[in-house]
Design brief:
The complex is a heterodimer. By secondary structure, chain A is of the alpha+beta class. Chain A has three helices and five strands; from the N terminus they run ββαβββαα. The longest helix of chain A is centred in the middle third of the chain and has 23 residues. Chain B has one domain: Beta-Lactamase (2-Layer Sandwich). The two termini of chain B are about 20 Å apart. Chain B is α+β, with helices and mostly antiparallel strands. Classes of the chains: A alpha+beta, B alpha+beta. Chain A: Keywords: Endoplasmic reticulum, ER-Golgi transport, Golgi apparatus, Transport. Chain A: Pfam families: Sybindin.
């Protein structure tokens, strides 16, 4: 029993957050220009090309005017990966090992499958099609809950505001709706909705930040289905 | 505990057999069923590529809030889809028997054209005996 990963999509079909745990087959870094927003997952965002570093709109990692990542411990908006603001218990929050992507082409990382941006689009496409299919078949406003294959199970949770949380787990896992609900009502509300430094619904960047990542990580690692 | 419907999808994604049983889902036109079967065929192919670990089969069970779809993929690529209530536990055994009936009454029928819609009385009666009489 385990949990593989979590995707969060907003109502504009964009992936705004990604977090993985026990994946043996990790996606490759996203392609540059593949449509992946910055601030989704530090480990999987496209590598900034050396000359154009910082030219991408709104990447506070490399912006010279970035004053957010101070170590004052007040509030850090975006996950920097190298900084750990004081005040956050990072002991339990081991960030996933960064994908060793040699060379700009994102080197074939250990037999990984698709680039992350394409994978995210496929996931969104599948849940969208299944939602429509379920609606057509039932004739009601019924939503799709999960599907299972021989090696994994995908769970969907939709919020009223149009955010969709998708979790991949072991095929024998029970419904993870309550987990995704508690991710939404806990870390997501606290560190995204109530965080003035995270532009929600911006369509230009994701919602990833250090507190959110650490808090989701703690929540998921504490589950009995997570081993 | 109810079986709502049975679909047989050929290896190209075309719906070759569709039958409704218990009420519970809306009745769609045959054209809409064709579209849904094609969609399912595509989704099935994508789901096997999304595996976080190693190679995976396509979706086997798809659950909604009040019903589920159980999918049996035969080695030749024909998909058998059973729409049932969530509590139905015998879906995969029923599908296995449907596959047997398909092999006996459809594939051994010299008048059946492969990959074309199934119009075989023998298959209809085998299915009716297995699941019950349909309304269509």
């Amino acid at each position: 029993m385990t949990i593989y990963c979590l995707y969060v999509f907003d109502r504009h079909c964009n992936c705004v957050y990604y977090h993985d745990w026990h994946r043996t087959k990790r996606p490759k870094r996203a392609n540059d220009g593949g449509g992946l927003l910055p601030g989704v997952s530090h480990a999987l965002s496209p590598l900034p090309s050396s000359s154009a570093a910082g030219s991408a709109p709104g990447t506070p990692f490399s912006s010279p005017r970035n004053t957010l990542a101070s170590n004052s411990g007040v509030l850090v908006a975006f996950n920097d990966g190298s900084q750990s603001p004081s005040g956050v218990p990072t002991s339990s929050a081991t960030p996933p090992p960064p994908v060793q992507a040699q060379g700009g082409a994102g080197g074939a990382a250990s037999g990984a499958g698709l680039p992350f941006d394409e994978e995210a689009k496929l996931v969104y496409g599948v849940i969208l099609s299944l939602r429509n299919m379920v609606k057509r078949l039932s004739g009601r406003d019924e939503s799709f809950v999960s599907y299972r294959t021989s090696t994994y199970k995908l769970h969907l949770f939709e919020t009223v505001s149009g955010y969709r949380l998708v979790m991949l787990s072991d095929p024998n896992a029970e419904s993870l709706r309550f987990v995704m609900r508690s991710i939404y009502t806990g870390p997501f509300l606290e560190y995204v909705v109530r965080n003035p430094l995270v532009p929600m619904d911006s369509r230009v960047r994701g919602v990833d930040n250090e507190y959110l990542r650490a808090s989701i990580d703690r929540l998921v690692r504490g589950l009995s289905v997570f081993q | 505990m109810a079986i709502f419907g049975l679909w047989v999808i050929n290896k190209a994604g075309g719906l070759v057999y569709q039958r409704n049983f218990a009420d519970g889902l809306v009745q769609l036109t045959s054209n809409e069923y064709l579209v849904l079967a094609g969609t399912l065929h595509g989704i099935h192919a994508i789901t096997s590529r999304l595996s976080p670990t190693g190679t995976s089969s396509g979706a086997q069970v798809i659950e909604a809030e009040t019903f589920k779809m159980t999918i049996l993929l035969s080695p030749t690529g024909t998909k058998f889809v059973l729409l049932t209530s969530l509590a139905e536990t015998s879906a995969s055994t029923v599908l296995q028997k449907v596959y047997e009936a398909y092999a006996d009454a459809v594939m051994k029928n010299p008048f059946h054209t492969p990959e074309m819609p199934i119009r075989s009385e023998g298959f209809d009666t085998r299915i009716a005996a297995l699941i019950g009489t349909g309304h269509t």
